[in-house]
Each structure stands twice: as structure tokens, then as C-alpha cells.
Automatic annotation (TrEMBL):
Residues 7-257 form the ABC transporter domain. Gene3D superfamilies: P-loop containing nucleotide triphosphate hydrolases. PROSITE patterns: ABC_TRANSPORTER_1, ABC_TRANSPORTER_2. It comes from the Bacteria. One of its GO terms (molecular function) is ATP hydrolysis activity. Pfam families: ABC_tran, oligo_HPY. It comes from Streptosporangium album. This is Peptide/nickel transport system ATP-binding protein. PANTHER family: DIPEPTIDE TRANSPORT ATP-BINDING PROTEIN DPPD, OLIGOPEPTIDE TRANSPORT ATP-BINDING PROTEIN APPD. GO terms for biological process: peptide transport. SUPFAM superfamilies: P-loop containing nucleoside triphosphate hydrolases. Keywords: ATP-binding, Cell membrane, Membrane, Nucleotide-binding, Transport.
Length: 348
């Protein structure tokens, strides 16, 4: 695997101005992805996964958004590009599968037409060639009878087949990077496994890097090489999948792992649900309000540190971590549930 990252994000920040002050949705996020690598971005709903990736693609359309940091893709800083240059990258060099699968497909055109148009937006090829390519892509993503189905409308496909079409569309220009936002969330378990298989194939056959956004640790364990755990707009843990699963270091990651159902394991513990969203904190550790190990120093933001590519942002003494985790598998459950989300009010 080549060492040079295809995407390097440094200190990404996204703030929304609201009538009552600022809300920081992404708070100093840094990560990189190498060609052919799958980065799993995981965290509960509201932790800033979608906003950060939309930020990378400069797709946050609300006029009240402020975005800063460095986003280097194939050597170019995306935040410095003209809109026209950015449009040329989107869809061709970086493709995105959006969280809502219906936004990707228009109900009024056949899927073949939509894939062909997507190709023709970036490449000068004839309609016939584009259509032939659409058929090949549908075949590649496992749509039966692609020569026929190319003329079907989105509503004529099942959920799983529609998601395959969306993936075919994303692949149409052979992107170096595919960002997939919860691509399997709406699907049943069997279909989900098939889609993950398909995405694994992409990486092998096309050498594409993939950023896989999910709230599901199970999905991450299936597909990711590297894992980025987000909470409150920040990276709380980052590292190779094996390390994050075998020696998770952040109490939030412990909670996520303990909430994955296991056939052989003890009773499943769920993360206590908090009203509101895990918004970025104004001051200390974003997870402090839910953490069973909170102490005085947590009023300050811990930085993301660690050796051999496995980093975490937590004040707990590193050498005690394994023992704390062992002795406290029920810590999260015991945490008093509090309204921890910061509102724009509090940040004012
Ligand atoms: N356009 C917007 N204006 C204001 N706040 C937003 C906007 N888009 C997202 N947010 C907020 O940013 C936070 C992170 O959202 P999001 O990235 O969608 O979370 P995730 O994808 O991890 O579930 C949420 O609190 C959400 O309400
Ligand atoms: Mg999301």
C-alpha cells in the first residue's frame, strides 16, 4: 500500500452561526486516507460525521456555515479551489454516496440515463458509449439482467438493488476516493453483508480509497483498515482496526463496543441515550458528561495523542486503561444520564 495519503485533512472546523450564537459541529478534526485504504468513521448520530465529510467536499450549502482547516486531496488544497475546479473533482475524483439514498436518484429518469449523464458530465463520450458503460457498471455491482434493468426506474428496484445502483453511479468515473455515508443503514442484514462485500471488491478491483461513515461498530469491524471514532465533532480515538477493537483506549469507544450485540458474549449493554445531540463542547472533553471516569482535569480538552498510529483523546493514565476497562465494563450503564449536549445558548 503506497504510503502517500490520497486525502489529508488537518484541523478541520465547521461552525454554524445561529440566531443564538455559534454551534461547532466539527472541532479540529485531522485524519488521512491512503490509496486503497478503507477508513471507518464511527460515532453516534449527531457526532459530526456527515458534516465533516460534506465539508471535505465543500457541500455544506447553508450560508451560515464557516469552514476552516486544510483539506489536501492529491496535493491540492480543496478549500482553496475555485467552485468550478471543485465541481470537476466531485463525482469524478471523489464520489459520495449520501446518507439519504433517495437524494442520489431522481424518480423521473431511468437508472441507465442517470448513470450515463453522470459519466457524460465529466467525460466526452457518446450517449451510446455512456449507456454501454452504465450496463457494465450495473453488472459489476451485481444487478441481474443489467441490459434490461438499465431501462428501469429507481422505484422498480428493491432497497438493496437501489443502493447497488447508487454505488454503480458513484463508481462511474472510477473515483480515487469514495465517501459512503451510512450506505447500509436502511438495509436488512443479508443485503447489508452483500453491499459490504461489494465495497470490499471495489477497493481490490479499482484501488479506490473508501471512507465509510457508520454508527455501527459491526460494519466497521467488517470493512475498515483504519478507524476514526468521533464524538462531539472531535476525533476521540483513531488507529488501525485491530488495535481499536482489541485494545480500545477511549471510554466512548468502550461504550460503542459494548453496545454491539454478541452471540457468545454477556448481556448487551447499551449506551445510555442522551437527549439532544453530542454537540462539540465549549470547553472540556466532549464526552465528560457521559463518562464514568470523569475527573477534574476533564474540564480541559484532551489532545489526540499516542504511539504507533493508535491515538486517543482522554486524560486517563495510559498504563491504567486496560485495568479500568476490565474492572468497569458497566461504567457507561451506571453513568447518570444528563442533558450533555451544549446548546448554542451555552456557547454564546
Ligand atoms: N446546516 C446545519 N446548520 C446547523 N447545524 C447543523 C447543520 N447540519 C448539521 N448540523 C448539526 O451538526 C451536528 C452534526 O451533525 P451530523 O454531521 O449530521 O452528525 P452525524 O452524521 O454524525 O449523525 C448535529 O448536531 C447537527 O444538528
Ligand atoms: Mg450523518
Amino acid at each position: 500500500m503506497p504510503d502517500q495519503p490520497i486525502l489529508e485533512v488537518d484541523d478541520l472546523r465547521v461552525r454554524f452561526r445561529t440566531g443564538r450564537g455559534h454551534f461547532t459541529a466539527v472541532d479540529g478534526l485531522s485524519f488521512s486516507v491512503r490509496p486503497g485504504e478503507v477508513l471507518g468513521v464511527v460515532g453516534e448520530s449527531g457526532s459530526g460525521k456527515s458534516v465533516s465529510m460534506l465539508g471535505v467536499l465543500r457541500l455544506i450549502r447553508t450560508p451560515n456555515a464557516e469552514i476552516s482547516g486544510k483539506i489536501i486531496f492529491r496535493g491540492r488544497d480543496l478549500l482553496a479551489l475555485k467552485d468550478r475546479e471543485m465541481r470537476a473533482i466531485r463525482g469524478r475524483e471523489i464520489a459520495m454516496i449520501f446518507q439519504d439514498p433517495m437524494t442520489a436518484l431522481t424518480p423521473v429518469y431511468t437508472v441507465g440515463w442517470q448513470i450515463a449523464e453522470q459519466i457524460r458530465a465529466h467525460e466526452r463520450i457518446s450517449k451510446k458509449e455512456a449507456r454501454d458503460r452504465a450496463v457494465r457498471l450495473l453488472d459489476e455491482v451485481g444487478i441481474p439482467a443489467p441490459g434490461k434493468r438499465v431501462d428501469s426506474y429507481p422505484h422498480e428496484f428493491s432497497g438493496g438493488m437501489r443502493q447497488r445502483v447508487v454505488i454503480a453511479m458513484a463508481l462511474s468515473c472510477n473515483p480515487g476516493l469514495l465517501i459512503a455515508d451510512e450506505p447500509t443503514t436502511a438495509l436488512d442484514v443479508t443485503t447489508q453483508a452483500q453491499i459490504l462485500d461489494l465495497m470490499r471488491g471495489l477497493r481490490t478491483d479499482h484501488g479506490s480509497a473508501i471512507i465509510m461513515i457508520t454508527h455501527d461498530m459491526g460494519v466497521v469491524s467488517e470493512i475498515a483498515d483504519e478507524v476514526l471514532v468521533m464524538y462531539g465533532g472531535r476525533a476521540v480515538e483513531r488507529g488501525p482496526r485491530k488495535n481499536v477493537f482489541h485494545t480500545p483506549r477511549h471510554p466512548y469507544t468502550w461504550g460503542l463496543l459494548d453496545s454491539v450485540p454478541r452471540v457468545d458474549g454477556p448481556r448487551v449493554r447499551r449506551l445510555a441515550t442522551i437527549p439532544g445531540t453530542p454537540g462539540a463542547s465549549g470547553g472540556g472533553c466532549p464526552f465528560a458528561d457521559r463518562c464514568a471516569h470523569r475527573h477534574a482535569v476533564c474540564d480541559e480538552v484532551p489532545s489526540l495523542v499516542g504511539g504507533s498510529g493508535h491515538l486517543d483523546a482522554c486524560w486517563l493514565p495510559g498504563e491504567d486503561r486496560a485495568e479500568i476497562r476490565r474492572g468497569d465494563r458497566s461504567g457507561l450503564e451506571a453513568t447518570p444520564v444528563r442533558h450533555s449536549a451544549r446548546t448554542a445558548d451555552e456557547e454564546r
